[in-house]
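note to self: dont lose this again. the chain is below, predicted strucutre after it. 449 aa total, dont forget to put it in the shared folder this time
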Amino acid sequence: MPGGIDPHTHLSMPFMGQLSCEDFFSGQSAALAGGTTHHIDFVLPVEHDLLRGLESWKVKAESACMDYSFHMAVNQWNHQTESQMEAVVEQGINSFKFFMAYKGALMVSDSELLEGFAACKRLGALPMVHAENGDGVEWGRERVFAAGVTGPEGHSLSRPPVLEGEATGRAIRLAAFVGTPLYVVHVTSIDALREVAQAQLAGQPVIGEPVVSGLYLEESRLWDRNFTHAAQYVMSPPIRSAEHGVAIKQALAGGVLTVVATDHCAWNSSQKAMGRHDFRLIPNGVNGIEERLHVLWQQMVVPGLMTPSAFVSASSTAAARAFNLFPRKGLLAAGSDADVIVFDPRVTHTLGVGAGHSAMDTNLYEGMQITGKVTVTVSRGVVVWENGVLTVVKGAGQFVPTPPHAPLFSGLRSQGRPGNVAAWPTAYGPTPVLRDGDRAQHAAEACAA
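---
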C-alpha cells in the first residue's frame, strides 16, 4: 500500500521555553519504521517574521532522511504578513495555521483570523486552525490552579470540550463569511465534531482531522498517581473521556472525519517534569509518528469499523489530496513517488519504548497489543525498513512543495462564492445599490469617462 502521510508534526519545536526532543532525523527514522514515508511539519515564525521562521526550519530539516513538506504558522498580523505569506506560497507551502489558543504566545485575535483567512483565499492556500477558546482556557487554568489542582489532571479540567466546540464553530463561521475552505486540526471532542459535521451538511468545505491518540486513549490516565506517567498524556486539546473517542471513531468510519494525523511533539520525562508542581508549565505534546498506522489499524480495521482501502485513504491518500500532493504521494501508480509499505495483518507485536525508534524515554502506547505490522518500508524506491532493521541516510530526505489551489478550492469556485464581499449576490438586486439622487452624478461620471 502507499506509504503513510502524517500531515501534523512538530519536530525540533521551540515551545514553553524548551525544544522538543525529536529532531528531523530521529523523528523521521521512527516514522519510516512505522510505515510513514512523508510528513508535513509546522514552521513557527521567528519574532513574527514568517521568512525568518522558514529559514530556521530549512536548517532543522538538513538532517532529514525522508520526504517532508511544511505548513506555516501565523501568530500575528502586521504590515508585512500578507506579503510574506505570498512569498511563503511561492516557496512551496500551501497552508497556514492560526492558533486560537496559547494566549500571549501563539494566539491570534478574531480580526487577525479574518485577515489571515482572506489572504489564504486570495493565495489559494488552505487555512488551518487550532480551535480552542484561548481566553476561556486562560480563565480556566487560573481558576483550576487557584483551587489547588496543580497536577496533570488540571490540564484536562481547564480545557473542557465546550471550549474546543466554541472555537471550532467560530472558525467555521468566519471561514464561511470570508468564503474560504478550512482545515480543523486535532478534532478531539463531540462538541467540535458536531460543528464540523454541521458545516459539511451545509456544503461548506471543511476538513476535520482526528489524531490517533484520540482513537485509543481516554483522560483518566491524567489522574495517575505517578506524575511521569500522567504528564506524558498532556497535549492540547486534551485527551478526552471515553465517549468522545467512540464518537470520533464513528465519524471516521462514516467519512465525516477523513485525515488521521498525530500532532507528534515529543518531550522527554525530564522536560515534562518542569511542570511537576504546576500543570501550566508541562510542555504540551505526545508521540505517535511511529505508532500511527499500527494504532489506526488496531482501532479501526481489526474491529471492522474501516476497510483496508479506507485505512489507506485515512493514513495517506486523504492527506495527499488535501494538501495537493496527490498523485505524487498517496498512490501506487506509474509516475508517483515509490513510497511503498508492506503491511502484514497476521503479525502481532507490542508497542513501547523498547520496540520504538523515537528519541523519547516514554511512549503513550506502552504495552499496547497490535495485530498487524509494517514489515517493509520503501522510501523513494529504496528499502529503508525490513526484517526489523532500519537503514536510513541522514540528509537523504527531500522537501516536497505543496502547490496552491488544492482540490477544496476547486469545489469552492464551483459553488460560485465571490471573492469580493461587496459583490455577494442577494435576492434584492445588485450590490452596491444605486440610490435615488445619485443617478445624475453617476451618469455624469460615466460620460466623463
